[in-house]
Amino acid sequence: MQELIYLTQRIPFPPTKGEKIRQFQVLCYLRQRYVVHLGCLIDDPADWQHTGVLRELCGETYFAKLNPWTARLACLPCLIGSVPLSVPYFFDRGLQEWIKDVLTRRRPNAAFVSSSVMGQYLLDAPYRPPRVVMDFIDVDSDKWRQYGDTRSWPMSWICRRESKTLLAFDRRLAHAFDASVFVSRAEAALFNRLAPDVSAKTHQVNNGVDSIYFSPDAAAENPYDRGRPVVVFTGTMSYWPNVDAVTWFAEQVLPRLRRAIPSIAFYIVGSHPSPQVQRLGGLPGVTVTGRVADVRPYLAYAAVVVAPLRIANGVQNKVLEAMAMAKIVIASPRALAGVEPEAARNVLVADDAESFAETVRRAITDGDLCGLGPRARTAVEKFYNWDKNLRDFAPLLQPAA
Q: Cα-flanking dihedrals φ and ψ of residue 394, to 5°?
């Protein structure tokens, strides 16, 4: 069996959020065809308990401890120069030595790199596999640009600097490696506009959704107070775009909704709520749950699922999972930018606070919208099947004839 080295910036298990979902599904796909040697970093102490699962799935493994405070200190010297701060943040010398050893000793047939910050480990490696696939997932440099537009100085300057330096670094990776992959048609098109010189090697591989797990038929107990219509947002609540989204909704949209539907409740469901998010729990009608064992009951019994993201790149798994649960989803244009247009037609779109409040009110009170959720699930099953979509990686991993 051929061998492959797989690098991820965070441990790809459990597949409960963002990039981890894609990374774990990719791992399951790769191990059907290769002996996979996994190298990654762990920044959450709770994740160390999951290393045994991955050792069972992989050949050789290396898990590097990432201390966020130490990593930030490592970034400071790079404020002078052209190196993106993300690169030293995710650098670990032990991981680098392990990668060099695996490459030299095992000579894997291919490499799969998830997230551009992990590309640093292969750029100057003494041996590079015949085929290297760089799964950028999102155009992170554009996300940093959006951060820069919403923060005050000096963070705005730091974010804009990161956007510029990271784009240059990503272009260097795209030139060096054999294929650059993005999670949606929109992200691939954006990278082509920013880096037209590597467009011939730029590809799209859609995400997927486990539509059996995220099913409206999944039995679950109602976590809400009965009789109250609930609007829910799900996501990792230390992630700034999510923090920004729920803060805006709670402060700007919910008061308008409560004037029309006094009993309405807004639930913010997700792990690691930041202090800013925790404070929102003091507002009338707002509940902050923190980490929950299973997000599906919160989706299943909600009247409406919202994704009011003002900063976004790639595909929002929270949107796809709610669609798979056959829920009425109301999203901002940015939150829908990465969704296939035919699928996105089954999601209600709102932008400003007034239109968001009115669209949520209509979704709760208008019986004519009851068919929207089932149509959304059908669209997810058509466009976001993991088995079907991951097959697109096969030709990218094979050396050219």
A: -55, -50
